[in-house]
Amino acid sequence: AFRLPLTSDAYELLFSSKSRVSYIIALILVDLLTPLIIKRWVLCANHTEPVKGFLGRYLRRKLIEIEIERNIRNNDLVKIIDWIPKMWHHLNSFLETHSSSDVTIGPRLFLPCPMDVEGSRVWFMDLWNYSLVPYILEAVREGLQMYGKRTPWEDPSKWVLDSYPWSSASLPQESPALLQLRPEDVGYESCTSTKEATTSKHIPQTDTEGDPLMNMLMKLQEAANYSSTQSCDSESTSHHEDILDSSLESTL
């Protein structure tokens, strides 16, 4: 065993012609490192790089490998591969809107996408109906209970159907339809937003301000309360003065 003072010496030894098979065994002195350096969390959020663009890069690389292997380029498949990352980002935006970024979906579910048109269509139908929709419904339901309604409801399946990359003419008649995410499935209609609750509290005040008779009655009530308060204060003051006078006379 020997120590290499520089990393460049290791590469020089590795690519040297003196040895047919070269390898490097690297050791590290744990005592020289603090626990903070040894154990460190690296946050990779779904809405930031490198995770945000990972799915697109991964699928394009798979597509290029298939095109080189088959020596053919399928424009329909290219369209599908470009669409899947956009759909993934749209779903995560929906989850962030009605819940939080903590419940967004990672790219792992979309990595096994088959590199053929029909296979990718069947794969996506199963993924949407049996994995994505149940998870989104549960995540949004919990988000509404925690944060309430923050924006109007927009079914993400509408965006999926509007931008669907597979040709509808090639779909078999017996194929299952994409499930929709209805607001009643997550209790959206029964959930009251903070803005609506605040507005409802101000409605009686607005109606009162617009009624002149009610305004006059309120002013009369305030005047009566004020006069009664003044009379009570004057009575208590005069009574207190009488007590002081009587005590002063007894002292004299």
- Rough shape? flat
Strand/helix succession: HHHHHHHH
Largest sheet: none
Rg from Cα: 37 Å
Classify the secondary structure makeup into a structural class. mainly alpha
Number of distinct beta strands: 0
Stretches where pLDDT is under 50 for at least 5 consecutive residues are: 197-208
Mean pLDDT: 77
Strand content: under 5%
Tally the helices: what do you get? 8
Span between N and C termini? 114 Å
Fraction of helical residues: 55-70%
Oligomer state of the chains in this structure: single chain
How would you describe this structure in keywords?
252 residues, mainly alpha, 0% strand, flat
In short:
With about 250 residues, this protein is an all-alpha fold.
Structure description:
This protein is mainly alpha-helical and 252 residues long. The chain has a domain at 54-191. Helices cover 59% and strands 0% of the residues. The chain has helices spanning 7-14, 35-38, 54-70, 75-98, 117-147, 156-162, 194-210, 212-251. Helix 3 packs antiparallel against helix 4 (75-98) and helix 4 packs parallel to helix 5 (117-147). The N and C termini lie far apart (114 Å). Mean pLDDT is 77; it is low at 197-208. Keywords: Coiled coil. This is NAV3 isoform 14. Residues 66-175 form the CortBP2/NAV1-like AAA+ ATPase lid domain. Residues 227-252 are annotated as: Disordered.
